[in-house]
Design goal:
This is Transporter, major facilitator family. This protein has a single domain, classed as Growth Hormone, Chain: A (Up-down Bundle), CATH 1.20.1250. Helices cover 79% and strands 0% of the residues. It has 19 helices and no strands. The longest helix is centred in the middle third of the chain and has 34 residues, at 140-173. 59% of the residues are buried.
Length: 436
């Protein structure tokens, strides 16, 4: 494999790809729940449909990441997947709007969401693997900080755009419910069109401009069964993947059910009318959260390289968890704003610090040829929480009589349970010491 360095061109290309993907995921997070509220009031049904993303993300990235490691193509190991996935994901975004606008039944709308999730996950592992493929271990924290910064800027962009369009639609229609006002105007299509343009353009840009290093020679390849077995047998990988599953499940509890949480806190219940009434506020709060994530992301990456892996991850996790413990006692919009802003700082640090871990472990264990499959499993442990949080979170809320606030303390406990796993990873800090 050719010698790696630090190329700002490569990092910015990956950051642009991350930006576009985040625009796509923000479209899902920002509009899918309120649009589904037009079909059903059941938290369990809505959570289960949104959990399709978790099912697909649990299966596709580990498999396609595995096979991309051994792909022999003049176009590279990762870029063909990136181009195909980006084009299909952009097309799927347009299909979601079309299905809703044409009055498709619930099952039809759910299928378009599932196709979008499938398209996005066709290249999830390949996108993640490109960074450790092209950046040497001692520079990955800095690269992760920049990529994480742009990823969450994509969320901020989409949430801000959707919030602005809803405010504009409310002013023009006089309708008090944000999503209902948006649906009555031509503005509803704009976020879907913009998302499609970003997804397709970024994928084509990376395919045409970014050059992958020559693939390393694989002396003794891992069979699929051996690869999965090695994750269970290697305690460092197992502890990290388990910890990541816990903190992403905590995040997804709030991300999936934010509108229900807001409606319950501010209006006493998450009825269709109350959910639609808080849609505009929810989008602005998501934007605020992403602003503070951006603030936390870059220093989080720098701390990872300079001060140590364990410390940077644990600090980020604690800052993210503490506002959720407070969440059970929140009663006002001002308190929601403060809690989400603080949580965003911690989440930004946690994301920037956790992204390079798998790449560094692969370097330590001399498995750098296998970044696709291990980052595929990395993404699976980010998708499994969507499945679990959607189904379990919805069931918990229904069992609690519609009290969405119960998700806050449960999420905080999950983050706190993850921290000892990180602390006891045997070789997490070895890379830091070796790199000085």
């Amino acid at each position: 494999m050719m010698k790696k360095g630090f190329s700002w061109g490569v990092v910015l290309g990956l950051a642009l790809l991350g930006f576009s993907r985040s625009v796509g995921w923000a479209l899902n997070k920002g509009l899918s729940f309120p649009l589904l509220s037009s079909y059903t009031q059941s938290a369990f049904v809505k959570g289960t449909i949104l959990a399709f993303e978790g099912i697909i993300g649990l299966l596709i990235p580990p498999l396609l990441g595995y096979y991309s490691d051994t792909l022999k193509s003049k176009h590279g190991r990762r870029r063909p997947f990136i181009m195909a996935g980006g084009v299909l994901a952009g097309t799927a975004a347009l299909m979601i709007y079309t299905a809703y606008a044409m009055g498709a039944p619930l099952w039809g709308f759910a299928l378009t969401l599932a196709f979008f999730y499938l398209s996005m996950h066709l290249y999830t592992a390949q996108f993640r693997a490109l960074m450790p493929d092209t950046i040497e271990s001692g520079q990955r924290g800095k690269a992760s900080g920049v990529i994480t910064l742009l990823e969450w800027a994509g969320n901020l962009f989409l949430f801000g755009l959707a919030g602005y369009l809803i405010a504009k639609a409310v002013a023009e229609t006089g309708e008090s419910e944000g999503i209902k006002a948006l649906a009555q105007t031509p503005y509803l299509k704009i976020p879907f069109i913009v998302t499609a343009v970003f997804l397709i353009s970024a994928a084509l840009f990376v395919y045409l401009i970014v050059r992958e290093p020559k693939a390393p020679e694989i002396g003794e390849d891992e069979r699929l069964k051996d690869y999965l077995k090695s994750i269970v047998e290697n305690r460092d990988f197992l502890k990290f993947y388990a910890a990541q599953t816990l903190w992403w499940m905590s995040f997804e509890f709030v991300a999936i059910f934010l509108y229900g949480i807001l409606a319950y806190i501010l209006h006493g219940s998450a009825s269709e009318e109350n959910v639609k009434a808080v849609t505009s506020l929810g989008l602005y709060l998501m934007a605020l959260f992403n602003v503070t994530v951006l603030i936390g992301a870059l220093p989080g990456g720098i701390v990872y390289d300079k001060l140590g892996r364990r410390l940077s991850i644990i600090i980020g996790g604690l800052v993210f968890a503490l506002p959720q413990l407070w969440g059970w006692f929140i009663t006002s919009q001002a308190e929601i704003v403060i809690a989400l802003a603080i949580a965003g700082l911690g989440w930004g640090m946690l994301m920037a610090a956790s992204y390079p871990v798998i790449g560094d472990l692969l370097t330590h264990y001399e498995k750098e040829a296998f970044t696709g499959r291990y980052y595929g499993f990395f993404e699976a442990t980010r998708s499994l929480p969507v499945l679990l949080a959607g189904v379990i979170g919805g069931a918990i809320v229904d069992l609690a009589g519609g009290n969405y606030k119960i998700l806050f303390p449960i999420g905080a406990v999950m983050v706190l349970l993850a921290m000892p796993m990180i602390w006891h990873m045997k070789n997490l800090e070895v890379q830091t010491n070796r790199l000085g």
